Predict the 3D structure of the following.
Amino acid sequence: MNCPLCKERKSALSSLHVRGSHVGLHTLNDAAVDAGHRIRTDAGRFTERWFHGLLEQGLKDVEYVEIISVVAIVSAIDTFDRALGRPTRQLPSPIPGAPTQRRPRGAKPGLGWLETVAPEDLADDDPNPYERFGAFNIQRALSLVPAEVIAFFELDVEL
């Protein structure tokens, strides 16, 4: 939220014309960092061109979904804490291990330029992201990575 590049882009007529580097640790590739920053600060101006540019820079569509989920979860927790007058929490340490990288077999082109999986297209061995929280578009938007749907809505129930 305090990144000078993000502030400049947010106030620009077209954010795509503002160049520079984001503030951060720079442990992720540039496309992942840009996606995270823009999702948090300027989500209303995403374009298909911008999204495909991320993919051209090597970001995978499933990584994009994971970034959306992480940013949404952290934003929700931060907003909740601010509303209660609490200090912002420290991020937890990363958990070791690798993601399953298992793409649902029934995924098809869908919402927001991403493949999604509709409830009726789930394969028997696919994790079901709709089972506990319903099959609304917000769940479907993250369904390319079913674990992210479940993580986000488990948080929603907890808060």
Remarks:
- Residues 61-90+103-159 form one domain.
- The longest strand covers residues 108-109.
- The chain has six helices and two strands.
- The CA atoms of residues 70 and 95 lie 14 Å apart.
